[in-house]
C-alpha cells in the first residue's frame, strides 16, 4: 500500500443499455411501465442477448397492455389493441392458440458474444445530473477493466499503470473524474481477520468467512449498502474474496454493476448451463465475455472446497416467469468454522414441482445453524407480463399455481420444521439501506424483527409482523439483519 491518497468511485447508480434502446426509451420516457424497471436493462444476462430495440419495444407493449386495465386480456382484446397501434410491434410476433395469445420476441442468435457488434450507452448519476458515454461493444468491455481498480486501495499512479495500453479505460477514468464521481481517500486496507464470520451484504448477498478464506454469494452493491459499509467497504471486500458464488442468472444475483467491479481473476462458481435459451442464458459465457478467467461450472449435487469452507450445492426450483421459464440454478449449503448455513435463494416451486424433496435431502446433511430464506410472497400481479422480454401472454390463466413465484410463510414454516435450524434469516426484500447496526453474537438471541425493522418503509410492516409470528410459532430466533451487518462468535 503506497502512502499516496487512493481513488475510489463514489456510491452511485450506473448501467449500460444498447444505444438503439436508449434512444427509443428517451423518446418514450412517459410511456415506461413500472413493471419494467431500469434494472432490467442494466447489462444483465436477462437482456444483453436480445437484439437492439427489443427492450424498448417490450416496455412500449407493456404500457399498451396495461392500458386495457384487464388482469386477463382476451385474444380479441389483444388483436384489437394491435390493430389500433400497428407501429408498436416491430420485433414481437403475434399468434394465437384458441383463447391463448402470445406476443413473442425474436429468437436470440447466439450466446457467445453479446456486447461486440452493437453500440452501447454507459450512464451514471453524477452530482450535476446524468452523465453518459456511447461506445462500441469491444470498447465497453475494455472500459470495464477500469472498475475493479476504483475500490479505494490504489493511487492514481497505480490505477494508470493498471490500465496501461487500454485507451478506452483511460478515457473513462478521465470522464469519471470530470463528472465528480471519483474521490480521494487515505490509503487503508480492509483487515480480513476483523470481519465477522457471516455478513449480510444487502438484498440476497452474503459473505461467509473461515480464517482468511472468504466466499461471497450473489453480491449486489448499491449506494445505500456501500454507504453502510464505510469501515468494511463493499468493493474492497469483493476484491478480497477467495471465490464468488452466483446462484442463478437473474439481475439481482448476477448483477452487472457489481460484477464488473470484481477482479477478473477471482474464481467464479456458477450453475452449468445445459440448454441455453432466453430464459436460461449461460452464466459462464457471460462472465467470460466480461473478462473473468476462472469460471467454474457446477451442478446441484456437487461438493467443493474454498480453502477451509465446504460448499454443497442443492436443487433449485422456483421463479416461474411464464411457461418454459425453468433455468439452471442451485441453492447452497455451507460449512464454515464449526457452523453451517443453508440458503434457498428465491426457490419455491415451478413447472417441475416444489422444493420439499430437496429440503428433506438437505436436512439429512445435518441441522443447519442458519437458514436463509425468501418470504416475499411475490406474484405476477399483471400475469401477461410474466414472461418478461421473452413473450407476453395470458398463458398463466391455465396454470394459476405459477402466479406466485416466491415463497410464502407457509412454505418457510414447512421447510423450517424439517430443517430444524438454530436461527432463521429472512432476505429477498430488496433491503439495502437502514442504519448501521452492531454485529450480532451467535451466543445471544437476536431482537425481534419488528424492533430491527423499525426504520424500514411502511410497506414492510405486515412482513415484519409475520416474521415475529413465525419465530413464535416455530420457537426459533429470527435475525433480521441490516445491510453490511454480521454475526460473529
From TrEMBL:
This is Beta-lactamase superfamily domain protein. It comes from Enhygromyxa salina. InterPro entries: Metallo-B-lactamas, RibonucZ/Hydroxyglut_hydro. SUPFAM superfamilies: Metallo-hydrolase/oxidoreductase. The lineage of its organism: Bacteria, Pseudomonadati, Myxococcota, Polyangia, Nannocystales. Residues 238-319 form the Metallo-beta-lactamase domain.
